[in-house]
Amino acid sequence: MRTLYLMRHGQTRFNVQQRIQGASDSPLTELGIEQAKAAKHYFEQKGISFDSIYASTQERACDTAELASGRPDYVRLKGLKEQDFGAFEGQQEYLNPPLQGDIGYGDYFVTYGGESYLDVRQRMEETIRQILETEKDPSTILMVSHGAAIAQFYRQVIANYPRIRMTNCAILKFTYEKGRFDLLSAADPVAGKRLYIKDEER
Questions:
Q1: 82 an active-site residue?
Q2: Nearest C-alpha neighbor of 132 from the set 186, 181, 62
Q3: I need a labelling partner for 109 at 20 to 30 A (CA). Which of 38, 60, 94, 101 fits?
Q4: What is the distance between the alpha carbons of residues 7 and 167, in angstroms, rounded to a whole number?
Q5: Residues 6+ positions from 134 with CB-CB distance below 8 Å
Q6: Beta-carbon count within 10 A of 93 CB
Q7: Which one of 9, 66, 89, 146 is the catalytic residue?
Q8: CB-count burial class (<10 Å; 0-12, 13-18, 19+) for 162
Q9: Superfamily for 2-201?
Q10: 29: helix, coil or strand?
């Protein structure tokens, strides 16, 4: 069995400015750096160490991965990048269309050169499955990605998924065995809060 910790990056400049950031990038703020350090403390307190570490190729995810793990030996993967919002990149968040329930923004951004929700789900699942299938069994893996991409991933692989808000540096814990993902818990290490826990984990 493989254990996966899937984590969102820390706060960025665009987060503070309420700008849309998907394929574009902006650096971590001082608070974002502290959030990543809080995640490191969370892992240390629970005695969690990683056999492998992966991050989206975007700076905010790479920096978070390095700070949260305390290690520079992570692998950068484009498949873990945030959803591409096309012409809306860098614009104010109030320009986003209304969310469409469990499919996020659906296909709205395709017209403007961005990705559909199904595109994001497919590449995230393919990327994460490929990594887990090539890792040794058992192993513990950290992956740092992005809010929308992570949400689309767990909606794809978990049948009765919980409603979780992926705050900065929120961490989802999955197991992966015989091709099946199981979401065990979600935590906000910055606020010191448990966002979700599966019944048998209580």
A1: yes
A2: 181
A3: 60
A4: 10
A5: none
A6: 13
A7: 9
A8: middle
A9: Phosphoglycerate mutase-like (3.40.50.1240)
A10: coil
Task: Give residue-wise pLDDT tens across range 77-109.
Answer: 999 999 999 999 999 999 999 988 888 899 999
- Which one-letter amino acid corresponds to residue 42? Y
Domain boundaries, the chain: 2-201
Average pLDDT of the residues in 147-174: 95
Structure tokens at 177: 């065995």
Q: Per-residue pLDDT tens for 115-150?
A: 999 999 999 999 999 999 999 999 999 999 999 999
Q: Which of 30, 59, 66, 82 is catalytic?
A: 82
Question: Is the separation of the CB atoms in 178 and 198 below 8 Å?
Answer: no
What radius of gyration, in Å, describes the C-alpha atoms of the chain? 16
Strand partners, 76: 55
CA gap 120, 156 in Å, rounded = 10
Distances (CA, A) of 104 to 17, 20, 151: 21, 14, 9
